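Standup, Tuesday
Yesterday: got the pipeline producing structure tokens again.
Today: sanity-check two examples.
Blockers: none.

Example 1:
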Amino acid sequence: MTQVNLTPFEDVLDGFYGKKGTPARDKFEADVDESLHAYRIGEAIKKARLEQHLTQEELGERLGVKKSQISRLEHGYSITIPTMSRVFKALGISTAVLDLGMAGKVILW
């Protein structure tokens, strides 16, 4: 029987980006966190759109953008706070609060 050598994922990350606490590793982890947040926002947009039985094209018409831009937003690309505000307002979500943990909460719109 062939023996398989498995490498822990942490060792792979160390090899590509350096140990935790190094600038390259910190940047990589920050980029991953940012991408995950954008993905979750995109999923929230998609969920709200689907709950209202809207197509991407219909939501795009409400915003004055093409279907492809809605697709990009739902996949976590090109999301800024002003864009989020426009999208969620177009979906009838009139307020949003950002929870900053110990620092408190911020009303975005």
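Example 2:
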Amino acid sequence: MSMYVGEALVGDGNEIAHIDLMIGSKDGPVGVAFANALANQSNGHTNLLAVLTPNVAVKPSTVMITKVTIKGMKQAVQMFGPAQFAVAKAVADSVADGVIPKDQAENLVIVCGVFIHPAANDDKKIYEYNYQATKDSIKNAMGGLPTAQQMIDQKDTASHPFKGF
């Protein structure tokens, strides 16, 4: 398969983390999306590589895309700090744990959508929630979760936390 898709929501309050991601080969559609995300930056949507520390980018190479417009330095620092480290650590741990096969880490790329609420204040929660949401998203993507049957089983009883009614 050339594309795996995962999603997870973790936490609460303004620090809530919602991750949407795609994992796929460099020469497939996810590779194209990865290159476009790095090449096409715009005001308020500064995409960045996930790094454990400067000069130590994760494998599979992971680009983080903002799901909301970054409107100030506070949000930018949260994206380039606790959220970036959380995503990077989750990718690294997923490879170490075998969720992403180590022998495929150089051939795959990840496009990871990250949500940072403009009113988020607690960097520790931003890290913890984004770490877990990224780990869960990767596990879901690589495991094909939810399955079609799981989705069907929950379609009439699911309650979306932000549906508004």
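Quick observation on example 2: The chain has a mean pLDDT of 96. The chain has one domain: 3-140.
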